[in-house]
Structure formats: C-alpha cells, structure tokens
Amino acid sequence: MGILRFMLLVSLGLVLFGLKTTVSQPQQAQVPCFFIFGDSLVDNGNNNRLISLARANYRPYGIDFPQGSTGRFTNGRTYVDALAQIFGFRTYIPPYSRIRGQALLRGANFASGAAGIRDETGDNLGAHTSMNQQVELYTSAVEQMLRYFRGNTNELQRYLSRCIFYTGMGSNDYLNNYFMPDFYSTSTTFNDKTFADSLIKDYTQQLTRLYQFGARKVVVTGVGQIGCIPYQLARYNNRNNSSGRCNEKINNAIVLFNSQVKNLVDRFNKGQLKGAKFVYLDSYKSTYDLAANGAAYGFEVVDKGCCGVGRNNGQITCLPLQTPCPDRTKYLFWDAFHPTETANILLAKSNFNSRAYSYPMSIQELANL
C-alpha cells in the first residue's frame, strides 16, 4: 500500500472515532432539499406497510436509533441519514410514504428494500417499489410542489436545481435477479456484459426522467463489493467447503456494471444532459477499503453480521427480537447484507468532502455549485 493511501486510510479512521454517535452539522442546511432513490441500503420505512419479506420495522433493527425500529435496515442511521446531517438538515429526510404537501419542499426518500433498476428484481421477496416506480412517485411529488410556486414551473425548476438527488441502484439486480437462476431467467438471457448493458440502458432512461423533472445535482453510487457480504460468504464458502473467500464471480460482474455507471456519469457531464452535474461514488472501492483495513477504522469483525443466524451470521438475516452483538461499533456489517451505523457514518464523511471515492468531485463540491 502506498504511503499516501495509508495516511488517507488512517486519517479517515481517526475521523470515524469521533463520529460514532454524532455528526457535526453546519448552522444552516447547505442545500434546500434532498431527494433519495434506492434500495434497502437507504430505505427508511417505505416498505413498512407492504406485504414483503424486505422489511425491517421490528427489533433489533433500529436498536441504536432514537426512534427505534422505523424500517431502516441497520442498527441506527443509514448512509443518507448521515449525509442529511452533514448537509445541515435538522431532521432526517422522511420516507415518501409518510409525507405529502409542503413537507416535500425539504425532499423525500423514495427508496424501497428489494428494489432494482429492473421492475421484476426483488419479486422473490414480495412487494417493493422499483426504480421506475420511484421515479414516477417523484414526478407526482413535483406536481404537488408546483402549487407552492403558484404554478410557476420556472421558479420550481430554479428551486430544484439547488437540491441534491441521490440514487443507489443495482445491488438487487444482481443479488435478487441475475444471480438467482432458480427464480429469474436473466442469467440465461444475458451474460455479464449484456446484462450490465441492459441495466445501463434502463438506468439512463430513469436518470434522464429525473433530469426532466428538475434534477440537476445528482449523486449516483456504484454497487459495493457484494460478493464479500456475510450472505455471500456464508453461501459461497459453504458450497465450496472453504472459509473467508469472496464470491469473485459476483464481484467481477459488479465491476463491469460500475465501470459503465461511471461512463454514464461522464456522458451526462459532457453535455448529454445540459446544465446537470453528476457525481459517481465508488462504493466498490470504499467497501473494499473498509474490509481490507478494518482495524484502521476500529472494526474488529469485517466478515460476519452483528445480527444473524448460521455461518458468518449470514445464512439467515437478523430475526425479530434476536439478540445482536453487544458492541455494534466493532462490526462492519449489521446483518447479512447491510452495514452498521458506524460504517454508514464513515462512508458518508469520506464521500462528502473528499475525492477519494467520488468522481469527478466530492459531494460538498457538488452542493456548492
């Protein structure tokens, strides 16, 4: 490891130790609103009333969150909760399922556990709100917001152009679609490259739709190193009678998809969507660094869930009323799939004012445009 990269990792680790329970906030929010699209990594309650296995509105989820079990798929704050605090919002951005009217002017969280770029992704888990559906809900929200600008679309556009839009999609298109051949046919219809091509084609249309309805500052995150999450470690190593090995077949497919997402961001920034600026977050690199250098960040366990059942606490995810590990700050993963609050805060801080994992600028630079 180069000395500059080592110093960066250590400095980020030192930042983490002061962020386990608090996130410093500016006096005033740096942006007027924050809109969020994604899956269970950032869902904060939209799935609570759906008939779905992709729900987290039960203990011990939320064990370290002031409001308890809200539907967040972690022990405390999600990545976007931490980002909202860093932006200066005094309260977290609420789930769209619970807000309407003037409250929308602060933003809304449309994310849904099990959601993907493809509509059928996650159907094996039950009901959810796909990316296409999230985008349509957002267009309805824009129509609602228009009344507070007396029908003046130019004024609303100027307002929305100052907001931050976050979108994180793709994980479930692989975990709960392409690499689930018993339920989906995509792995026989496509290969790794053509599947990534298909996802990017759909994602391009979805992000363009957000642009058409006012999005100008957009953060697009790649997919993390999901071949190394406890769920995959448990399944892959049990099947291959080994231990500690990531599923590189999945990781290789993710790398291919992420490279295309980054290229998409380049195309958008070079004039395909005039007046917009996109930032790509390299979640694969950031999650790799967290796992590979866990001790530098204060983590003692990087391959097991804090709450779960079976090998790596990843064969069955966290069950209702299950007793989790006593010190969540020592774990990278909360359950079979999702990071702990501590990991989410570290990732948000490192992405916000550093280009270590963001391209072509940091989130703070995007907000200041």
From TrEMBL:
Gene3D superfamilies associated with the record: SGNH hydrolase
CDD domains for the chain: SGNH_plant_lipase_like
Keyword annotations of the record: Hydrolase, Lipid degradation, Lipid metabolism, Secreted, Signal
Keyword Secreted: yes
InterPro entries in the record: GDSL, GDSL_esterase/lipase, SGNH_hydro_sf, SGNH_plant_lipase-like
Location(s), subcellular: Secreted
Signal peptide interval: 1-24
Keyword Hydrolase: yes
Pfam families: Lipase_GDSL
Chief location of this protein within or outside the cell: secreted
Recorded family membership: Belongs to the 'GDSL' lipolytic enzyme family.
PANTHER family hit by this protein: GDSL-LIKE LIPASE/ACYLHYDROLASE-RELATED, ZINC FINGER PROTEIN
Protein name: GDSL esterase/lipase At1g33811
Organism: Camelina sativa
